[in-house]
Amino acid sequence: MFNGFDAVDLARAQFAFTMAFHIVFPAFSIGLASYLAVLEALWLATGREVFINLFNYWLKIFAVGFGMGVVSGVVISYELGANWAAYSDKAGPIVGPLMAYEVLTAFFLESGFLGVMLFGMERVGPKLHFVATSLVAIGTLFSAFWILSANSWMQTPVGYAVNPDGQFVPAGWLKIIFNPSFPYRFVHMVLAAYLTTALVVGAVGAFHLLRDQHLPGARVMFSMAMWMAALVTPIQILAGDQHGLNTLEHQPVKIMGMEGHFQSYKDGAPLYLFGLPDQAAGKVKYAIEIPKLGSLILTHSLDAPMAGLDTVPRENWPPVPIIFWSFRIMVGLGFLMLGLGLFSLWMRWQGRLYESRLLHLFAVAMGPAGFIAVVAGWFTTEVGRQPFTVYGLLRTADSASPLAAPAVGSSLTAFVIVYFIVYAAGLTYLFRLMAQPPHQGEQGPSHAPVRAAGITPAAGVAAEGQTL
Description:
By secondary structure, the protein is mainly α. Helix content is 68%, strand content 6%. Helix 1 packs antiparallel against helix 2, helix 1 (7-46) packs antiparallel against helix 5 (126-155) and helix 8 crosses helix 9.
């Protein structure tokens, strides 16, 4: 059945499929864990019951999403060993310890306190429970730290030596961990996780406000989410710009592909808004462009010369059409997020944050935008690194296991079938949880009463649902 296919391409397709499923869950978990810590902190500080109701509401959703993320992540380890044995052998002395550090810090921290977070409110008391929630949130950030450090080293490898067996071995761990692209990638990803969560929270709040504008929990979660969208999106756009400048410095060929610059430009490169990149012909067909704006964005100079893919051997070109469009999807969604944030500020100033149906419909439509942007960004980053797994040093074709195409194709087929069944069931359950509004006395996974921990709501209880 798969004899006509290339085993390396099938292995790449399998990894792309499973990672596209996996990456959205850690992004959601990182943002939601921090949101839960904020909600619990606000409850402890103010005594307002709405915050603990929201905490218990989103804690159930976090538990399901976290579990789905862990399960989907286990598959990645299997694939690295089964389909990418040559990569694991050559890069293992560096990537392996970084993954071990992630287990020793993030995984132990998360698993050690997750049970307390989910089921321990009435057992350990509110203050210790808040400590557990905070440590789980910190654990998710540690996980992102180590995984992005490993990935960034593959993008901008430094601090290594090559032993006689052709393996990359560490020559300086600080250089490896804090490689040139890591700070930019880490900030960009964490902000993306926070925005992804804010858009989901905002969409759920807006969905319930469309039904009833007076629900306290929906009002508070929607207000918090819109503040996040309004304040963090501009920071994310700035962080993305700095990340792009770093990529231009260390991975210029990736930028050439993202921008569709097949030719070099001596006195300023255009910005292609849209078009159809033709890799075989080496040009962007039907291009809609703004002259010299590409150079202005990338170098902050209108007339700066820009090298194109015509200066690079064709065998080192990335798949331009994929990253050209995935980059534009990510950027386009980023500006829609900015539009949502600005619209919410206008409605807040007008005193119509909870009454504007147009704003609520916009927020509901933007609910999945963060996940799509994260996947598009991941495609831009990883496909843009091709044809290398370790940029400039180890080619993807030399990283794969010596497997026949039918063996890889069979496991790919099995993954597709199982994923669509299992994750369809999991997502259906998540949607059912989100379809119910948070209510007074909301119970968490332990079914503990709201006041079992001994917190008495403060005098501000009567003002639940007011603007934050």
